[in-house]
Write the structure tokens for this entry.
Amino acid sequence: MNNDLISIIVPIYNSEAYLEKCINSIILQTYKNWELLLINDGSIDHCKEICNSYAEVDRRIKVFHKENEGVSTARNIGIDNAKGKWIAFIDSDDFVREKYLENLLSHTSDNVDLVISYAEWFYNDTSKKNLYPSKLVQEDRFYLIFTENGIHYYTAPWSKLFRLDLINEIKLRFDCNIHCGEDLIFFISYMLKAKSIYISSDTDYCYNVETPGSLVKSLKSAENELYSFKRISETVDLLIDCKNIKNKDALKNLDWIKVNAARRVLNAVYKSRLKRKERLNILSQLNLSKNINEIYSDKCYKNKIFKIVYAIGKIKTYDCFKQIVTRNRYTKGCNIDE
């Protein structure tokens, strides 16, 4: 195994309850040639003091304190200051097993542009692992990662190794205008330029699912969610085109990514106080005629009604019915204004 320097980027915001466990798990790595970039994104708890205390005793740890601007700007600062050959991202409320870096690096070579591994998912007192086969995937068979390895579920930047020279070559950074899906866009944009990917069945990354205030669980404005949907759809379509993906199962799973983003837009629209004209404008940009069956794929009675209503009256009828159904759930955002 080579001795490449790995730059570990940890964005931090008000995670004092988890931060020491995260940093300690990195210090205890069996692989020692790393630098740790702690990006404190304006935390108002004791994260600043915790970061500084570790930097004082370990020269490999560098700390950056900044105003709160979001996880994307924090990760971008990490990339801008990284010195390693490889980049690894770890969230401050997660931790890693002691062979995390060693196992990731063992799969690298001059011909590998990206290493992907999996995670152990922690739900309060329980955890689970999803097991997939290990493989080296060349550019002409990229569809395999979406059919045999379920990578459409694992688009976060953690549990991966990225080449810093390739990131800088294509001038890739996280989109600071997106608050959900920015990591997916980063990951797929990187894959567009990757010629070979190694997928490992290792599950050395430990992901805390139930962390309070998790970014993935919080809806943003309908306009922001729509922007995210458009960026995600464009990036996924570009991957399909550039990698010439034609396998039906792979295309279905890539469509799932776009449909999931469309669901977030719908949830944001009907949780908001948008006027009817504004809602219809957003709905017209979601390509519902193509995605309605996937958006309401669960075979419950209510979803069947939604599909029937859309088939009968398209967007306007759907909007009225959706407003009535969601009135009890989102009282403030359910005024039907003609």
